[in-house]
Every structure is written in C-alpha cells, then in structure tokens.
Amino acid sequence: MQDQENQASQNPEDAQQANQAQQQAAPQEQPAQQPAFEAAANPSLEEQLSATEAKLAEMQDAFMRAKAEGDNIRRRAQDDVAKAHKFAVESFAEALLPVKDSLEMALKVETPSVESLKEGVEMTLKQLTSAFERNKLLEVVPAAGDKLDPNRHQAVAMVPAEQEANTVVAVLQKGYTIADRLLRPAIVTAAQPK
To answer: Sorting pLDDT into bands at 50, 70 and 90, what band is 86?
Structure first.
C-alpha cells in the first residue's frame, strides 16, 4: 500500500490510471455475480416448460381418474335402478305366498262344511291383510259424514241425505294407498246439496 502511495505521489498520471483500473475491475465483478444469482432465482425456460408439462400430466391423470370414477358411479346407479325395478314386488310376492297356500289347501278338502270354509276364508283374509300392511298397502275407508276428498274418494252418485252436502254417505268399494300414494280411490256416494 505504501508502495502505491509512493508511486502515486511520484507519478500522478499513474495513480489516476490505477484508480480507473480498480473502478473498472469492481463493476465487472458485480455483473458477473448478478446473472448467477438471477439464474438461481429464475429457472430457465426449459425448466419452466418441463415443470409445467409435469403438472399438466398430473392434472390430466387426476381428471381421467375422476371421469372414470364418475362413469363407474353412474353405471352402478343404473344397475341398482334396474334391479329395483326388476325385484320391486319381491317382498310383496313373498308375503302373498302363504295366502295362496291357504287357498290351495282349502280346495283340497274333500267334504268341507260351511263353518270350516268360513273359518278358512277368515284366516286367509287375515294373512292377506297382514301381507298388505307389511308392504304399506293400506285401505282408504272414509266414514259416513267425512268430507268428500277428490284426491282419495270417487263419488259415483249424489244422494239426498240428512247431512252436510259433499260428504260421504256410504262406501261402495274400499280404496287403497301404497306408501302414501293412491292406488285406487274409494268408491262412495255423496250427499247432494239441499
């Protein structure tokens, strides 16, 4: 360092040149460091492209898996609906089998008495009623004087009566609902307006 100061005091032009050389050398080192730092922070276009392609492949795979799963769920649901339609009456049919068996046994009796026939029919009717109840097949039997409900009753005649107009006078045939859906309306006569 003292040698440089001695040289600078001896020759001012040499000192100026040395200063310029140091200044030029310093900026050249900084730009050399900047690109190396920027390269580490900003990946090259090839690296960005390969990363994007990898992400695209991953997303496409996830999409294809989700699509396949959706197709499988739809197919299973269609199969379940088809089976439900095919076997919808299975439990009801099972409940009716004892009724058929009872009727067949009654026909096999050689010399039935009126009382035994009546008893057999009553037992068979109980089996049938039980089968209906288990399968939610319920009777619609309005009482006399109930308001006529066009959603559950069908009036086939208007008759003079000592009750309010548009009320049930008599039930000619029971109606039925299955799982709260009308299967057959009750056939009734209704009181006509006075």
So the answer is: confident
Chain centre to alpha carbon of residue 74: 10
What CA–CA distance (Å, rounded) separates 167 from 21? 118
b vs e for 61-98, b when ≥16 Cβ sit within 10 Å of the residue's Cβ?
Answer: eeeeeeeeeeeeeeeeeeeeeeeeeeeeeeeeeebbee
Q: Which of 193, 175, 192 is nearest to 184 (CA)?
A: 175
Task: Retrieve residue 94's tokens.
Answer: 């099972």
| pLDDT per residue as tens digits for the range 114-146 | 898 899 899 999 999 999 998 889 999 999 989
- CA dist., res. 115 & res. 112, Å (int): 8
CB 183 within 8 A of CB 176: yes
pLDDT in tens, 14-66: 666 666 666 655 544 444 455 555 555 677 999 999 999 999 999 999 999 99
pLDDT of residue 1: 47
Q: Tokens for 27? A: 């900026």
Domain over 138-194 is classified CATH 2.30.22.10: yes
* Residue 126 vs residues 92, 101, 134: alpha-carbon distances, Å: 15, 13, 12
Q: How far apart are CA 142 and CA 86, in angstroms?
A: 34
